[in-house]
Write a structure and sequence with these properties.
alpha+beta; 66% helix
Length: 399
Amino acid sequence: MPALASHRKPRTRTGIAGMAGLRTNSPAVGFTTAALASVTLLSTQSANAAPTEPKPSVEEVQKKVDDLYRQAGTATEKYNKAKESTDEKRREVDQLLDDAAKRTDKLNESRRTLGNYAAAQYRTGAVTPTAALLLADSPQAYFDQTQLMDRMTDRQRTVIDDYETQRAAAAKQRAEATKSLESLTDSQKALRTSKQEVQAKLSEARSLLSKLTAEEKARLAAIEREKEEVARRKAEAKAKEEAKARADAEAERRRREQAQQPGGDTGTGTGTGTGTGSSGGAYAAKADKVLSFARSQMGKPYVWGATGPSSYDCSGLTQAAWKAAGVDLPRTTWDQVKVGTRIATKDLLPGDLVFFYDDISHVGIYIGDGKMIHAPKPGANVREESIYYMPIYGSVRPA
């Protein structure tokens, strides 16, 4: 009987090999899936991450640095104001403490006098008039002693009154000194705050400049030169205006002299617009001293809060220059702008003070022809520059 054929299909090599191939490739499939998941995750994280801020352009850095220097100038004037107040308060406190010490000496003197009286009374003891009369050597001696004690009582009362007066005055003096000390503490706090503000602005400006490449620094220098050139051209135009005004004034003076010659009247009036009259001459003499001093300071560094003689800030220079002409100016630009007479830019004369920016944070000394001498900013020296380099706020003739 023939053998029955098996109905099972034999396993083909291809099938086995396929299974083996599938098992062999499984790890690769897993790795690919993980890689795709990682890429997706990183893409998501990158999308959610905060975008980095674009680097500012050189023009933006230049604008920001200029603004920081201006803010530092404002903070410097705050510092100058606070220092002025602090110095004044310190002098006031010192005076009050000196006065309090003198009051204390007087109080101690009155106290010693009272102590002497108290000791004398203790040694004498409290004796009734009757007992004093009975114990006296004679009635006359009693009456002499009573009269002396009455006089001693009047003197004692005077000493007591003086003591009370000195004690009350000393207490008042101490109260005033305490109040002034508290005010001094507030002024010192304001001084520290202003100093920190200046330092913060300057530090930020230096940080911005330090991040520039050599090429960017060259571009920044070129921007500065362009700005200076614009200011120079404006100064030249101003110089031409002033030259024309001087020529017109001289022509008018000669015309008047010629008109007066037939009548023999020489006259002395030459007007005040050109500064040739008596008052103008006095101002010109002071201005010469101011400009002579200012020119002698050129090349010295700007240092905020400095008043000379080795360095200056802007208002420190103007204050020192006018002091050389015998005129005392306040310390800050905010106070200097209130001194003297306000002058239009077209009427500026050498020696006038020119103030800049809406917050009046900078000042220079006009020298004519659209130029000034000033202490510009940190990192720069006292120098001549066009008054049109910065926006003009206004001008003052101090004397």
